[in-house]
């Protein structure tokens, strides 16, 4: 266009606009259709997943012998993992959301987020090659450590409250967790010594695992893997409770802990429950850690000192070799369907409970 | 009421729970540090040059003697690697502490490494050996006559007992670099991670190309067109549930849908002459990328939708008020403003995909692939071929390696590399997200 724009009167511009209007309207229509098509494709994929499992799954009569041990293995692994993940994740969440000094919280939150992203195969590797052989000799030490840990923490707490000067207590308020690292390490050393000392006797023989790759190892490592999930969701729920509630309680004479335990925790309870449910669902579906460190023996035993084989690990082990369309493959699909439904139920429950928390917080 | 005076001050009662919570944080941090420490320590092991000792021990048939590198020792026994004349991993000695008679570390002990990964130990002069022409045959003490060696086959000549800490570190760095950038040496086990690294990167790039357009389109529809309608809520719930489906089920889905379904169909149509050996009807790069794209789709949709929600309403209304259609407003205003959110979504998807191993075991990652998926031959990117993957290499080296003493260390090194890649990606996502939050705050202010 070499003609200067100012020589055009207003009407041709309107004309050009009118000419382009049809093109623009068409583009708008196509954009809408394209987006709707993409959404429909996604919806179709979502529907396809359970449907294909349903259509080709085939229990083949082997339910009791084949699937029950696998299901029991999955639940056992997830249960022991939660035994580790709930105290660690929930305790950390409580500390981080309500008590930690803001700089500490800003450090901890991304740290846990990154921890959540650590590939499971890395954790599985350490569990299988380092933790399992070491733990096989140190079960007793672990038991001693776990038994003495709460006592030690409480004792450290009350000692600090009594002995430290008020100035130091104020300085460390919200940072007390750093103070606890030396006592925890000391206790670990002591427990190792005690484990060696007690290990020769009858108790040591009783606590000797049948195999290094057992439920205990899975519980510890899978628990660590699930812990950030529990932490993130529970922290979010606890942090969302208005500060005024706790402040009012403390103004009426409650301690920081009483305010939390009696007031904040009950309000945030649905969020915490959702965190636990999602943690359980994630632990059920976790594959690599269980595959590498559980020994993959399909046993129907609840003992943490025996091995297990989970549905997910079984899928990873057997599906690459099974011929498509065979009875074996149908059975694998059936077990996958079972796992899918379990996770679906847990996730949906968690989502419902979280929605309840949101309503409750909106009311406050 | 009066009883709560100064004497029974309830201030300290029941505060021990607080310390338990603090202890949970401390314990988690300690566990995190311990994991990292173990990983670093274990992965440094195969690269640090081991001391070479002259061992004398009480064997079944009288005292025995050998020059060997000490690989591992604990309170009960000692594992050493003697010269591997025959094959890699074939000359380990396991000696009980009680049987060990004498152990000296002669300063002139040499550790030679061959191109195929074998190691030889002998006493001699490193400089004289290094100065030989590469075609010269070697006459080493203890060498079987039927297995001649040339100087050119030696890739590393070390006198490990003379190395100081700096020298050991230098050798370890060189070896680690060679391991990361090298290729596997045929059947003698793994000697490099390069193919696995290339396979991982190509897979993740392909997955991003597949997942980003669909994910962004779905998020746009959900947020801009569907709003809070019943259909949109249903799709949102489905996406949220999809995010919670175990990854191995995605693998199974990919196996049935892509490999057994699409792949077998393609074979019957286009590669019928090659049957029964499958072309597409087996695990491969494309099927793995599609499976991972499905796996990461919820991540992308959720992250992009969150980013779209952060675009200030004033910008949209301004664009619409100036006469833009809705598509124009989205293309010219909303998407450019939400660009960091798209980047966050991409990085999160890549980080999730790079660390996933379980689905890949079903749809295409293998222990050893003879060729890279990306090369100079047409069509350059080989979509139907099986490939090596970093995470799968970790699993494979750890559980099925032939030479445990070396492979376990290398598995840890591969795991460390994978961890570095994934953590760097996640840290990048967190930084971008925080920038994005600041920017959206500025825009709405």
UniProtKB/TrEMBL annotation, chain A:
Q: Does the keyword Ribosomal protein apply?
A: no
Localized where?
Cell membrane
Question: Which terms are listed as keywords in the entry?
Answer: Membrane, Transmembrane, Transmembrane helix, Transport
Membrane topology per record: Multi-pass membrane protein
Give start and end of each ABC transmembrane type-1 domain. Answer: 71-350
- List the transmembrane segments: 34-57, 77-99, 111-134, 140-160, 180-207, 213-238, 259-280, 332-350
What's one Pfam family the UniProt record gives for this protein? Answer: BPD_transp_1
Q: What is this protein called?
A: ABC transporter permease subunit
Q: Give the species this sequence originates from.
A: Tahibacter harae
TrEMBL record, chain B:
Where would you find the membrane-spanning parts of this chain? 20-40, 193-222, 234-259, 285-308, 329-351, 413-432
| Presence of the UniProt keyword Cell membrane in the record | yes
The membrane topology noted for this protein in its Swiss-Prot or TrEMBL record is:
Multi-pass membrane protein
Q: Which UniProt keywords apply?
A: Cell membrane, Membrane, Transmembrane, Transmembrane helix, Transport
Compartments reported by the entry = Cell inner membrane; Cell membrane
Any one Pfam family here would be BPD_transp_1
Q: Which residue range or ranges hold the ABC transmembrane type-1 domain?
A: 197-429
Instruction: Tell me, in one coarse class, where this protein mainly resides.
Output: membrane
Please name the InterPro entries in this protein's record. MetI-like (IPR000515), MetI-like_sf (IPR035906), Phosphate_PstA (IPR005672)
Tree of life domain: Bacteria
Positions the record marks as coiled coil are: none
Q: Which family does it belong to?
A: Belongs to the binding-protein-dependent transport system permease family. CysTW subfamily.
Give the protein's recorded name. Answer: Phosphate transport system permease protein PstA
Q: Could you tell me which species this protein originates from?
A: Tahibacter harae
């Amino acid at each position: 266009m070499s003609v200067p724009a100012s020589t055009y009167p207003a009407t041709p511009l309107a004309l050009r606009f009118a000419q382009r209007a049809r093109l623009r309207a068409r583009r708008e229509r196509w954009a809408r259709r394209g987006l709707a098509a993409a959404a429909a494709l996604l919806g179709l994929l979502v529907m396809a997943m359970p449907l294909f499992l349903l259509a080709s799954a085939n229990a083949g009569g082997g339910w009791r012998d084949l699937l029950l041990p696998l299901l029991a293995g999955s639940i056992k692994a997830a249960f022991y993992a939660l035994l580790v993940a709930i105290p660690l994740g929930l305790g950390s969440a409580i500390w981080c959301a309500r008590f930690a000094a803001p700089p500490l919280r800003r450090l901890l939150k991304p740290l846990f987020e990154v921890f959540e992203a650590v590939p499971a195969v890395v954790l599985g590797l350490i569990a299988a090659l380092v933790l399992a052989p070491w733990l096989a000799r140190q079960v007793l030490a672990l038991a001693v450590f776990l038994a003495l840990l709460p006592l030690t923490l409480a004792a450290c707490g009350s000692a600090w409250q009594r002995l430290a000067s008020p100035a130091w207590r104020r300085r460390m308020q919200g940072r007390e967790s750093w103070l606890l690292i030396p006592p925890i390490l000391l206790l670990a050393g002591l427990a190792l010594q005690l484990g060696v000392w007690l290990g020769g006797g009858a108790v040591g023989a009783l606590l000797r695992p049948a195999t290094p790759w057992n439920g205990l190892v899975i519980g510890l490592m899978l628990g660590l893997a699930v812990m950030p999930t529990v932490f993130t969701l529970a922290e979010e729920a606890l942090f969302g409770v208005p500060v005024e509630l706790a402040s009012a309680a403390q103004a009426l004479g409650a301690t920081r802990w009483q305010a939390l335990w009696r007031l904040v925790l009950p309000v945030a309870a649905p969020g915490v429950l959702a965190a636990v449910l999602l943690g359980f669902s994630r632990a059920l579906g976790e594959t690599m850690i269980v595959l590498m460190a559980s020994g993959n023996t399909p046993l129907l035993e609840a003992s943490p000192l025996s091995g297990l084989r989970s549905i997910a690990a079984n899928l990873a082990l057997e599906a690459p070799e099974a011929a498509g369309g065979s009875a074996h493959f149908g059975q694998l699909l059936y077990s996958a369907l079972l796992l899918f439904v379990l996770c679906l139920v847990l996730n949906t429950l968690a989502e419902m409970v979280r929605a309840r928390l949101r309503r409750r917080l909106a009311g406050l | 009421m009066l009883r709560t005076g100064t004497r029974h001050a309830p201030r300290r009662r029941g505060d021990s729970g607080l310390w338990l919570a603090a202890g949970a944080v401390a314990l988690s941090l300690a566990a995190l540090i311990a994991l990292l420490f173990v990983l670093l320590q274990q992965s440094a092991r195969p690269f640090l040059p081991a001391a070479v000792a002259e061992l004398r021990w009480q064997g079944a048939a009288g005292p025995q003697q050998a020059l060997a590198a000490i690989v591992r020792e604990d309170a009960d026994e000692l594992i050493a690697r003697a010269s591997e004349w025959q094959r890699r991993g074939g000359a380990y000695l396991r000696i009980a502490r009680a049987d060990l008679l004498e152990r000296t570390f002669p300063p002139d002990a040499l550790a030679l490494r061959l191109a195929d990964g074998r190691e030889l130990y002998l006493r001699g002069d490193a400089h004289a050996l290094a100065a030989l022409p590469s075609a010269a045959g070697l006459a080493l003490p203890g060498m079987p006559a039927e297995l001649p060696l040339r100087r050119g086959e030696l890739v590393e000549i070390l006198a490990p007992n003379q190395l100081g800490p700096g020298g050991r570190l230098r050798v370890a760095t060189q070896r680690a670099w060679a391991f990361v950038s090298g290729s596997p040496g045929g059947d003698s086990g793994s000697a490099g991670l390069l193919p696995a690294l290339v396979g991982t990167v190509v897979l993740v790039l392909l997955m991003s190309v597949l997942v980003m357009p669909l994910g962004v389109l779905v998020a746009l529809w959900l947020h801009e067109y569907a709003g809070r309608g019943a259909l949109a809520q249903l799709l949102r719930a489905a996406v949220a549930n999809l995010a919670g489906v175990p990854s191995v089920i995605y693998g199974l889905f990919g196996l049935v849908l892509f490999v057994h379904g699409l792949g077998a169909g393609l074979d019957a149509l286009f590669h019928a002459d090659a049957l029964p050996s499958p072309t597409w009807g087996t695990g491969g790069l494309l099927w793995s990328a599609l499976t991972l794209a499905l796996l990461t789709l919820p991540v992308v949709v959720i992250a992009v939708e969150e980013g779209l929600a952060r675009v200030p309403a004033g910008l949209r209304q301004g664009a619409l008020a100036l006469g833009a259609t809705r598509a124009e407003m989205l293309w010219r205003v909303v998407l450019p403003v939400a660009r960091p959110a798209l980047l966050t979504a991409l990085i999160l998807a890549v980080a999730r995909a790079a660390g996933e191993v379980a689905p890949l075991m079903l749809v295409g990652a293998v222990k050893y692939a003879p060729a890279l998926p990306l090369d100079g031959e047409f069509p350059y990117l080989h979509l139907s071929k099986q490939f090596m993957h970093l995470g799968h290499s970790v699993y494979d080296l750890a559980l099925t390696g032939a030479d445990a003493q070396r492979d376990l260390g290398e598995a840890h090194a591969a795991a460390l590399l994978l961890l570095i890649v994934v953590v760097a990606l996640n840290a990048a996502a967190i930084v971008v997200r925080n920038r994005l939050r600041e920017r959206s705050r500025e825009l709405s202010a």
